[in-house]
Amino acid sequence: MWLWVFLLYSVLQESSGCTVERGLGDTITRSAGDSVELLCSCTQQTKEDPQTVQWGFKRKFTPGDYRADHSVFPEDGSQNRRYRGRVQILNQNKPGTVALIISHLTEEDEGAYLCGNNGNYNRAVTLYVRGCAVLDQWSRTFSRSPGESVLLPCPCPGEQKINPDRVTWTKDQTAVSNDTESYRGRVWMFNQNHSRNFSLLISDLTKEDSGLYTCRADEKDMQSVQLEVTGCTLSENKQTVPVSRSSGESVLLSCTCTDQQDRPVGVQWRTPNREDLLQRYSGRVQTFNQSSTGKFSVLISDLTEEDGGTYSCWINQNQYRNFSLTVKGCTLSETEEKLIIRSPGDSVLLPCSCTDQYTKPVSVKWERVDSGGTEVSNEMELYTSRVQMFNKNLPANLSLLISNLTEQDQGTYRCSINNKQSINITLNINGCTLSETQEKLLIRSPGQSVLLPCSCTDQHTKPVSVKWGRVDSGGIEVSNEMANYTGRVQMFNKNLPANLSLLISNLTEQDQGTYRCSINNQQSINIRLSIEAEKREITGSFVIILCVCVTLLFIVVIGGSALIFYKRRNNKTQESVYINTERRTQNTDDGDSINYPSRNWKEISMPPINQCLDSGTDQSDSVYQNMTFNTNQSYLNPYTIKCQSTTN
Question: pTM of the prediction?
Fold first, then answer.
């Protein structure tokens, strides 16, 4: 049917509210069986809700009388039975223009068509319908583009009656009908006896349809008409091609002419919501029709889930090819909350990724849930130069790496994609806990070194801050930067983060005081350092030696006294018994020994006398005395025994 022609390039829709100018419109002449487009223009459009332009029919029009005999579209919305299935309203591309299309015209359709709105008709278009086609010299050639339709009229045979069954169409001596393979399903012939219209409708034209067409009635040739089909024939016309991609990828929608040397009259790409593709995806779409006249494919990059839908490539408003595009978006591989435990100074990888490694989310965001949604990025002062993402090279990997962790990094982190899916990760930081907090006392001497102990219970932990200060000096810092400690203090936490001890060398009496080790301004330990001069201490061995020396000295003194007493007594007895005896006297230099030739005396010896004295006196340490009566002289041998004492 003729209506098919218009359905290929028009869409039925309501017009926006407008004001119709009063007066006469065009006068149009058509043949029975033809279709006609009657235009009605608005002089002023409004922004009110759209209204349907009303059309009425008047058999005989009198200027100034705009009252209709009947409505083409009654107010109740149902079409007049006379026009049922033959009329439609079409909004043209030109704003403010509304068209009434009537197909399968009959002689009864001749008259004045009135248009208006709000129940008032203001404009009239006159239509004349001839009983059969009348061709002149200019109407014998028809030019169309591939994919379009054409109505080839059969010239009026005069008043002669014609049997419709005896009317045929040929092209270059070849029958044109649905029984012919090349025209199957594409041709339709009017055979209305009352209108004597035997026109031929051919749809979906191809270049092969070009040629000379002749209408024959009762074996008599009518006038012939020439059809020329030129331009682009779309490959895979009216087909739908399914395409599947992942978000972040690109897609090439191929639309070409069968003969790539042809250039179509008009090319248009339409998006799923019927927008112009080049405007909708500005910056993400690339065309190729400049390099090839018959190739007008488009490349859409950085696809998102919202890009999914049906895209259409239209040629000359009659050929099209559809692409059903499915864009697979990012689906998080895991959404259950996780718990990760780390120590200060460590690094942590917070996992977040798409199930499909080829997908790419429209947006991804890392934030701290426990800090009111604070963004986690290098732009934030707390995380400057400490965070890293990998989605530039691996779009589906949305994980976040945080290095040099501190206790302030503890909290709940959230990875969100497209503001739809998210995963929470709780990060716990095992901070430093001092192994001891009770005050200590250390005693050292000047010149020595001292290690002030301070350490974390867990050797893998690292405090955010550590400070050594002198409590008794107003909290003054103890470091090599201070004049009193320059070059004398050392810490070990660079290589051993949990060891916060402080080594002070070359101690002086000024170093005596109370030192405090503080971590994170929360925990601390006090250590009192006492500097005392070095003293000798009496040890157990010295006491033993001293006791032995005193005991020996006591024995020597007692023994010596007894010997002297015995000697004196013996001398007196000898003198009285032998007073008259001739004596032989021998004097010695020392007078220590007396020899009697007539008697045999035994040797009398005195044991050595040992005396331990204080090293601070002038006396000798020990005295040895030996008395012998076998010699002519007595002698005294002194020996020195040193008594030692040890002190620590």
Answer: 0.43
